[in-house]
Design a protein that fits this description.
Layout (H helix, E strand, L loop, with lengths): L3 H12 E3 L5 E4 L12 E5 L4 E5 L5 H11 L15 H11 L5 E8 L3 H10 L80 E3 L14 H4 L1 H4 L3 E5 L2 E11 L3 E8 L8 H15 L3 E5 L5 H10 L2 E9 L1
Parallel strand pairs: 9-10
Antiparallel strand pairs: 1-2, 3-4, 3-11, 5-10, 5-11, 6-7, 7-8, 8-9
């Protein structure tokens, strides 16, 4: 079992490249999608907190930010906003315009059996092999925390490669929301097959099956090596929903999820995400999933799969 404190370190390493001092250099993307890292990153779990600054930040600003963040380094309630958030924003805005403010939960996956039960039944249970989740209260994100306002395609709800320095999210489907209902399709699974964790219609994309990628996902064929595993729901011979490794190290990888608009509301996002997590584990790596409090659809996917919140992220670019 990987402890929550260890997951936080793996998470930060997957999201950002770091210099020899542990300062953040850039997003952990391949060129030309790599962009500058946040100026401040604060990751918090019930056990510990991680505070990082962008490499090259002047010492006076670093010291001032460290002082403002100090109350949050010993917090036991990571779901609340940083105590001195407003002062941190004011300090950074005085130096240069703020490009992005991000605040949201980070999740790990339950064991494969629990994940399969959650996916097939919609009834949440948590793995005995994972740390117990703590209360997720979330918050009321400010307008400039909207994923769409920072260049991300909110239709898809997932961060595909592009100049958006933030964690990866999933596309959601929730009960009772317009366009996010529990509709069915011929490829929508009701359960996992006992011999294969991937349900009917869900496949792993390989070099020999890249022809199944629809035009919207053609870019994955060129990046298959760095995005693997790539899992897809295939309907009528074409992928309509995909989950891929959006940012990764040899130890852990973050999920990126996209579903075509006309195929939303059919629980495809949950199916590909669960199968992706299994494929990642078979590679000997740890699957991770993170999103913003503002991305309600993505959080519904996490809830449906019974993902376990181990930390929250707060960072400003």
């Amino acid at each position: 079992m990987t402890e929550r404190a260890d997951l936080l370190d793996l998470h930060v390493a997957a999201l950002f490249t770091q210099d020899e001092h542990g300062d953040l250099v850039a997003t952990n993307d391949s060129e030309p999608d790599q962009v500058a890292a946040p100026r401040i990153y604060l990751g918090r779990s019930p056990e510990r907190s991680v505070l990082r600054f962008r490499s090259g930040m002047n010492e006076s600003t670093r010291a001032a930010l460290h002082e403002l963040a100090a109350p949050d380094l010993t917090t036991n309630d990571p779901s609340r906003e940083p105590v001195n958030r407003a002062a941190i924003e004011e300090l950074l805005a005085a130096e240069q315009p703020i490009q992005n403010i991000y605040f949201g939960p980070a999740f790990s996956f339950p064991d494969a059996e629990t994940l399969a039960v959650n996916l097939s039944s919609g009834t949440l249970r948590h793995s005995r092999e994972e740390p117990a989740p703590y209360s997720i209260r979330g918050g009321n994100p400010r307008p400039n925390q909207s994923r769409q306002s920072h260049g991300e395609d909110e239709r898809k709800g997932a961060l595909r490669p592009g100049p958006v320095p933030s964690p990866l999210t999933g596309e959601g489907e929730g009960e009772g929301d317009p366009g996010l209902g529990s509709g069915a399709s011929t490829s929508t699974p009701d359960s996992f097959d006992s011999g294969d964790p991937r349900p009917l219609g869900v496949i792993e994309i390989s070099p020999s099956t890249t022809h199944l990628l629809s035009p919207e996902y053609a870019w994955l064929a060129d990046e298959l090596t760095v995005r693997n595993p790539v899992i897809a729901v295939v309907v009528d011979g074409a992928a309509v929903s995909v989950c891929f490794s959006a940012r990764a190290t040899r130890h852990a990888t973050e999920a990126g999820v996209e579903t075509l608009p006309e195929h939303r509301g059919r629980r495809h996002a949950g199916a590909v995400t669960a199968a992706w997590a299994d494929a990642v584990r078979r590679q000997g790596r740890i699957p991770l999933y993170s999103t913003s409090w503002a991305n309600h659809a993505s959080r519904r996917v996490a809830a449906r799969l019974g993902l376990i919140q181990y930390a929250t992220d707060f960072h400003i670019t």
